[in-house]
């Protein structure tokens, strides 16, 4: 039972420290929607998503009202669409438009799963879907796309890496009249997980149940406030313990929402993803947590060490609060979605090279970074390869979501609005990696993949 102090504390977290459930995401399998006729397949896709998710938004709103817990986004993720394309053939854009239409009809914020898993090679449907991604993101509004190009067990598909550098650039160019937003809805993964509730990388893995509810919880402001209340001379082990205890409380809230939503919707409860996912709002920044720990500004020496401790403590606290912690749990470091990261970038304290080092110990990787519009596809591909190598060697998920600012001056910015925020253009080294990228083939799996 919650006592009065715990209730008051939770109310304060919500009202003053930006605590929220960032998303409830319904994962839906589309395996039984496959058909050799693409029109019939699209019809099955629409009907199944509508059947399961038609009450998702209403349920989220009811839970938020009942418990006074803000639930910011309601989303859907589906089986990687390339699998359906492999059976039906035809233009994959038909699937993208179907996903966009049903997502709008049920009222969710985003739908993810316009995806392909090509870490070990291209199966039927994969190349067709990947080629269509820029156009799909330009011709839809709330469809999100992801491609997994590597894993610890499989190595890195360098042919796919090359293609994805091109597709990111094309997605930005096709939406240059809308702040290049197409590229902001496209993620390239290494070691992608099957139960991720966060966009743009969410898809419903083939090992998942037919339909599940996954919850993504956030609370950078809560963690920062808890650390701020500690003495400035408190040892770092005490700070880690404070973070663990705070993460425990936040995860319990996510567990409550997930269990309630699954009961109301009559589907299985999947996981709680405890991720310190920031927003552009003041006081809701992972960078500011690192500064509260003791850095003058995020990006300075010591940043990677502080982030490693934060990420580990968040996971330890979350695991103790729920037997169903999963997804990408830890700390996200998107630039455009984090007020502290934006400030550090503008002051020159934070650069892409430092961000890359930080990705070795964070939840995901290079996220929501605006780069110069004249960056070549080969440079983008090499950035993906670097990030995938970190994930492959360290047995962790890494990702790249960069947005080339087409037509903008190098000192300019892109403003996406909402949770996607605002991003100043970050300089990137433009020395040519073309020979490396054009070699193609496969980077072999590392020795630490042989664990059987």
Automatic annotation (TrEMBL):
The lineage of its organism: Bacteria, Bacillati, Mycoplasmatota, Mollicutes, Anaeroplasmatales. This is UPF0210 protein EI71_01451. InterPro entries: UPF0210. PANTHER family: UPF0210 PROTEIN MJ1665, UPF0210 PROTEIN SPR0218. Homodimer. Pfam families: DUF711. It comes from Anaeroplasma bactoclasticum. HAMAP family: UPF0210. Belongs to the UPF0210 family. It comes from the Bacteria.
